[in-house]
Amino acid sequence: MSYQKPCYEIGRFSINCNAHGLGFLDPPSLDIIFSISNILAGDLAKSKAAWLSYMVHLGGLTFCVGKNALRIPNLVTAERFGSAILHRHQAALEDVNGAFKLLIDNGNIDRILGLYARGMQEHDVGAHDFKKKEEDHCNSICFTLLANIHPSLRKVGVETSITKPSGTPGRIDMLVSVTSRKQLFVLEWKSIQIDFIEIGSGSRLKRADALADIPVASEVLDLTFRNDEFRAGQTIKEWILNGPKDSIGHSPQQQLRDYAQSREIKKWEKDGYAITPVLVVVVRSRLVLLWNLAGDKLDASPRLALE
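Above: the chain's sequence. Below: its structure in token form.
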């Protein structure tokens, strides 16, 4: 099997790796070469340059010839990095491979998003986790699952790109293409933070865990916004379909429709790709709500991303 050695611009690579935290380098199943439990981790946690230097010293990264960039040197290292990231997200390699197989064979992206939801429920427990925005979740699922560098996942033929249109704050778009079946998933991401939804009482963690027990999408859609400048009193469903009641902003439904009908997506259609537009709403770092666009409107079957 051939292996393309990816090059990363130094700044971007350090940010992505640092976002996963140092913990992902030290699961017990990995070789001691990636363990930092016996060294002073403080400098590595605070300094991108120190972390990168340490990884170059260990042989986990090396330099791209003729470029101001670093690369993963070989297949073994890529496998270790990929496995460590999956371990950090509490995702088993065989589960992710199974989700990719479902995506490629059946055109079903729900399982991948369900794996992300499970990892999010287990991992997002701190105050900063409950403040994640669309971009945070989008980057997380991309680098953890969809674009994980483990060789067995990279050979399946799933490509992912993330765009943030200029002039549209808070809007994140993701394209997931499956070349073998010529299918393109157009994902419009939204994130509803924990303090903006009326549910339960107590700490953020207790309220988030109460949300995780909701079994069906219809109950999630009936939840009401609170403490929100533009959406207070609206249900999630009303906001998705109609937009904020006290703002001129477009609804998530309209944003997804506009992107699915954009010139960029029309180029994919011209190349013979089937287009599947999906609204992805992350609710309080606990649930992932999925809703497909059918024509100009969202269909009658919103659902939760479950394993």
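The longest strand covers residues 183-192.
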